[in-house]
Amino acid sequence: EYRTELDSFSKIVASGTAGNGVASFSVQTKAGLTMEYGNTADSRIEAQGKATVRVWAINKISDVKTNFMTFSYTEDNANGDFYPSRIDYAGNTNAGIAPANSVQFTVETRPDVTSAYRAGSLVKSTVRLAGAITYAGGTPVMNYRVAYLGSGAAKSRVSSITECLPDGSCRSPISLNWKDGGTSYVYTSSLYYQSGNSSIYAEGNRIWFVDVNGDGLDDHVLRDSAGVINVALSNGSEFVYTPSFNYQSGSATLYGEANRFWFADVNGDGLADLVVRDSSGMINVALSTGSSFVAAPSFNFQSGASVATYAEANRIWFIDVNGDGRADHVIRDSAGVINVALSTGTGFVAAPSFTYQSGSAALYGEANRFWFADVNGDGLVDLVVRDSAGVINVAVSTGASFVAAPGFNYQSGASVPAYTEANRIWFVDINGDGLADHVMRDSAGVINVALSMGTSFVAAPGFNFQSGASVATYAEANRIWFVDVNGDGLPDHVIRDSAGTINVALSSGTSFVPTPSFSFGAGGTSSIYSEPNRMWFADVNGDGLPDHILRDSAGGTMVRLFSPARDVAGHLQSISNKIVTSLTYKPLTDKTVYTKDISPNAAAYPKLDLQYAQYVVSTVASSNGIGGTVTTQYNYGGLKAEQGTGRGMLGFRWMKSQNLANNIESYTEFNQTWPFTGSVAKSETRLAGSGNAGVLKRTTNS
Asked: Could you tell me which of 468, 479, 493, 469 has the C-alpha nearest to residue 528?
């Protein structure tokens, strides 16, 4: 017997066994309803090729008077898919009445088949809803027909829903209009920034684009020849030099020293902190306050022996290995052993339970064949190693240690003793299922993908893509990126060719598709592949799309924004059925729609104040029926999450809607503290801009 963590006063009982799990559940609610899940063969959705249940779908709802309704499904176990086929209702057990009425669903093959993996099993969606017919007894009453955008649409999006009678006559359809995304990059002169005066491209090695003030926009950070960190904050339209961030990071003037610098959130406040490894092997941290960097000597940590050339830093990472939201110190020592020092929020503490023998070679340079990526989808970064035989080996993180997972062993390419082949391997979530996949560019220039199933890697030849000319040295991979340029949640293939042109192949989730409209001259015609070390993809205007950034030979930073700016596909623009309702959206990085909490409402660890390019409804406008329009404006504030506890998103602290016609606004505050998370703390109806005198109604819950 179970209870929900937030008590809903429901009794939950598990029954039977299927594979290595439960066969079905029943839930009795405080309202007197009994709901059954997975208690019929068709509602018990097994994982593909297994007896263990993946989904317990609802199959029956009954009340205290024994009225009931049932739900039936079609299961496609070969694809790990299922969908409802019908709902039957108006039955009564005591009266012996079978359900007389029903809703029956029809489906059609979808052109945008999506695939994902869950715990080693395939989940592939191959159909979409085509319509629904309601019946009274055996007589059809109404037919609802669903139409979708044309074949050129990348995703299945409903274009209309039409209600028709049995005689074939139909009412005017409800039409849905969707926002199309931009399809090109456009140079934005206002974001040109003089980042230095050197014409040496290598100077770009000491430049980063990271969000140091927590506003969701990536800022320009440069370490100058005197060792001083300089920051130019992005406001979305330009970079603004902000001297309060100036910080002396070291005395050496060598630009190459940048290989021992990192920007990572070591204290879990959502701000990128500066981490430096000095010539004695000591880790030094300067925390970002949002307006400056402040030395935090409590983080000082001896990460390894002194190495004057700093090459030792090539085998150090700052990543969150235990899932508490704070970046930890990870080093591979000269014996090939991974050592972890966990961040406590105020310092680093050695965590010997994470110690792991990652290989036998003593060379520090071997780090170029190591990655940290979440290959099993549990939210923790796992250790991935490519050995001298070209085999991928994985040690999954449990949150307390690394444990070898031989099921992931995968032959990624020919044996290369020098391990340089690893320079052309990436671990990214290519199909959008939350699992990091293996991507390799082979010696012929072909991209090969092996999708993670959560327990192993499986080759996905549908992704094979000729990314460029064959380059036997594999150095060509240095000018390839996998970033989501169109905002659909799938990383796309981006390559800078020998003429300096950026070329994009969009990911469909099952393959890469060349998209010439994205092509543009990135700057310069040099055939030297190393030139990309002065290029970045970062979101500098806060629209959620990666912008192309180039540092030119004059030391200036040029930015190309995805065009048109702030244009992400997939948003519903309007709904019309003679009367039109229109919606507009803005990202949380836009201060006109969202306000991030500051003191006294600022979050304290483990809570985290959030501001990122999540789109929310900004306005809703609809006809008032007499030729005018009623517009409601929405504002949001105080979005928070809780780290390391499993609570996750806590929601907005407040939301406000304002009728622009009569200036009346509704304001609601929500609790963000367990166990009251999401409940209403206060609600008001008031005349906007009139202060307490304008409050028409106020309710406070305590």
From this structure: 479
- How many domains would you assign to the chain? 2
Decide if 366 contacts 359 (C-beta within 8 A): yes
Query: What's the Cα-to-Cα distance from 436 to each of 50, 391, 455, 635, rounded to whole Å?
Result: 23, 17, 11, 35
Domain stop point among 99, 132, 165: 132
Q: How many CB atoms lie within 10 A of CB 185?
A: 23
Residue 680 lies in a domain: yes
**Beta carbons of 152 and 513 less than 8 angstroms apart:** no
Preceding peptide of 564 cis, ω within 30°? yes
Summarised one tens digit per residue, pLDDT across range 220-231 is 999 887 889 999
pLDDT (0 to 100) of residue 438: 97
Q: What angle do CA 110, 505, 424 make, to 5 degrees?
A: 120
Residue 616 covered by a domain: yes
Whether residue 260 lies inside any domain: the answer is no
Within a domain: 342:
no
Q: Give the DSSP letter string of 432-477.
A: SSSSPEEEEE-TTSEEEEEEE-SSSEEE-GGG-EE-SS--TT-GGG
Which residue, 497, 550, 545, is CA-closest to 184? 545
**Domain membership of residue 668 as a residue range:** 572-700
> Are 185 and 560 a contacting pair, CB within 8 Å?
yes
Integer Cα distance of 271 and 608 in angstroms: 10
Mean pLDDT by 10 residues, the chain (702 residues): 89 97 97 98 96 98 98 97 98 97 97 91 96 96 95 81 96 92 81 71 73 97 88 95 94 56 96 91 95 98 66 79 97 88 98 90 58 96 90 96 97 64 84 95 89 97 84 60 90 87 90 91 55 78 91 80 61 92 96 97 97 96 90 98 93 98 96 94 94 92 92
Whether 364 and 377 have beta carbons less than 8 Å apart is answered as: no
Residue 102 one-letter amino acid = S
Q: Which two tokens stand for residue 627?
A: 């030729």
pLDDT in the model for residue 255: 43
Over pLDDT 90: what percentage of the chain?
68
Model confidence pLDDT, tens digit, residues 554-572: 777 888 886 554 456 678 9
Q: Which of 108, 132, 156 is the last residue of a domain?
A: 132
**DSSP state for residue 689 in the 8-state scheme:** T
